[in-house]
Amino acid sequence: MIKKLQQILVGSLHRQMVAGMTITVILMMGLFIWNTTQHQQTIKIQQYKEQAIALADTLSSSSAILISSRDFDGLQEIVSALSHYPDLKHAIVIGLQGQVLAHTDPSQVGAHIKTLPNDIETQHVKYSKNNIEFAKAIILVERKVGWVIIDLNKKTYLEEIMQIKIYSFFYVLAAILFGVLITTLASRYLTRRLHIIQKVADKVQTGSTHLRVNMQGDDEAASLAKHFDKMLDSLALREAQLASFYSLDLVGLTVTSADKGWVSINSCLCTMLEYTEEQLKALTWVDLTHPDDLAADVEQFTKLLANEIDGYSLEKRFISRTGKVISTMLVVRCVRKTNGNVDYVMAMVQDISKQKEDAIQIERLAYFDPLTKLPNRRLLDDRLKQALILSQRSNHYGALLFLDLDNFKTLNDTLGHDIGDMLLQQVANRLITIMRKGDTISRFGGDEFVILLENLHINAVIAATEVKAIAANILNSINQSYNIAGHSYSTSTSIGAALFLGHKTTSDELLKQADISMYQAKKSGRNAFCFFDPQMESILINKVELERDLLFALEHNQFQLYYQVQVDSSNTPIGVEALIRWINPKRGIVSPLDFIPLAEDTGIILNIGQWVLESACIQLKAWQENNSTAGLSLSINVSARQFHQADFVEIIKNNIDKYSINPSLLKIELTESILLNNIETIIHKMNTLATMGIQFSLDDFGTGYSSLQYLKTLPLHQLKIDQSFVRDLGVDKNDKTIVKTIISMAHSLGLNVIAEGVETLPQQQYLVSQGCTHFQGYLFSRPVPITQFDILFTQATKY
Q1: Mean pLDDT, range 265-270, rounded to an integer
Q2: pTM for the model
Q3: Local structure of 552: helix, strand or coil
Q4: With b meaning 16 or more CB within 10 Å and e meaning fewer, what string describes 232-268?
Q5: Which of 108, 429, 672, 704 gives 103 a disulfide partner, CB atoms 3.0 to 4.6 angstroms apart?
Q6: Has residue 693 got a pLDDT over 90?
Q7: What is the pLDDT of residues 724-736, one digit of tens each?
Q8: Which residues pair with 755 in a beta bridge?
């Protein structure tokens, strides 16, 4: 019953209006009837009361004298006369002792009434269900002589009230029916337009989103309809925008249920996971989550269901249908019901695999060498600092090995950077193969590698022994031949080492120490290993200062050419060798043996070589203009690095043309080391220069190891016997044999021979006996500046 009443009261607006109006009419009419009935009752009771009082007053007044005269018959006549009074039930006159003196029912005369109204002074009204009883005292000369009781019957009154109620009920019923009718008609009129809006809303809800109300008018219903149409237009626009966004292949979008099932999935997510939408709906997102990422996702989703959070974001990996692992950024938000429970969950899934790969690539570029894939300088610095901390805690030694490939620059310059890069890659692979697990192998730059050794022995001597054994293994591995592009190559390395324990030495100082010891290993003959010695640091400092002074010397013309005469067997001057000297204000005369190797390593040799060439050409020009010196040839030393310049031939030609010298008087002295690599290019350059008239002398012949096979193809004019063989000719039979062999081989090849370092007459005599006819050395003249040379040359035509 209550539910039906609720359905009526909370039903449609039409029902609510009818029910409301009906209830209102019933209440109003009921109140009206109740009020009318109560009013009529009040009036009737008052009328009955007044009637009873009037009868009592009349009877009391007429009874007083009759009672006092004891005329009871007269009294009875008066009372009997009242019996015809409407609604009178009975009238009684009672004496003071309760005796009925007169009664409308004569048979009651003489009876006694036990309960007298003694408590009433004058009058009293008593109401009962069917009667109204009025009692009044009979007063005679201010003395009570009896009582008059009037009892009126309310039957007529009650019948009138009942009649009123019956009439009122029909009035109410008619009013209700009329009210319901009027309300129904009015509500139908009023809700008809609202019903139109409702019908459109129902159809829109079922999918007919294109429908609109389009209601005309200016009333509230029309205004509501217009706003409703605008709302539908706005929703349609938003739905179209959402559908457009949902269909984009930019990001995966999905709606899932509280039980982790897929409800709706866009095409981007389907493509990403390699499933159709139907296939995905048969699964849950748990089925496709990487096992290592599932716990974190489930934990957050559980908090979402528990109403602890409304959303979350995290990185997680999905596994596609083909097993591909996809890194994604997952953003989850939920929509809740009114009771707080999750209705559905929306998720955005963005594929960040490319970003992750880019991040890894960025990290690789930041911390790893792209050529060898080894840790770079930055990562080494991080690991070295960490190693210092661990060494401090464990009290175990560590070490830093600094490797530099020997002669790599020459190989790189002659064979090309591609060959050099492949060599570096093979060296890196060998280091990875032979080093201990946990050691850090890094490419420090160029052909330099730095190896960090950790967890060595707690005893310094034993730790150093471990380092030495590791270094020996490295040297042996690097020395093995390499197959690069189908050709076999050999190289070696120099290794410097620095031990460390805790924070006694900083990372920068360790690197510096290892670098210094590496240079010491190179200085000791390359392909060697050397521990750090504090004296090395001062040597390196001197080297840095020397390099700085070399650059200053170039800028401020501190270099000077010294000239040493070359003579024939009769001691007649036939030529001169130009030897560079460095006149430093602080150092004095610096020997080429001290600064030429540094100039080679730093590349300054190219600038120095250019200066020597120009100075030599200027001097040749001056000699050509003097008849006594016009036939002198001038030899200059050219380094391998200078000769391998791509434009070396052009440089020589330009200087010859610039100073207008006889090219046949310019002799270029080359060492055997220049013939180690790229021999075809060397031969081509030499032939080009030879066609111009330039002569070539092979300096320090006999000290090398690879030039003999090329002697017949090189456009050489002269072989120069190294002074190391000439110095001990009188005491060393082997030197004699070597010198004899060199002279014989040169003659067989049609080459001139000159011996340098000739200091004694017996040395010259032996050389002459073997067929050597050109000499150079202290026996004839020391290298001297041009001013002294000119003086010596003009003073004697023979030496």
Answers
A1: 87
A2: 0.45
A3: helix
A4: beeeeeeeeeeeeebeeeebbbbebeeebebeebbeb
A5: 108
A6: yes
A7: 889 888 777 888 8
A8: 721, 775
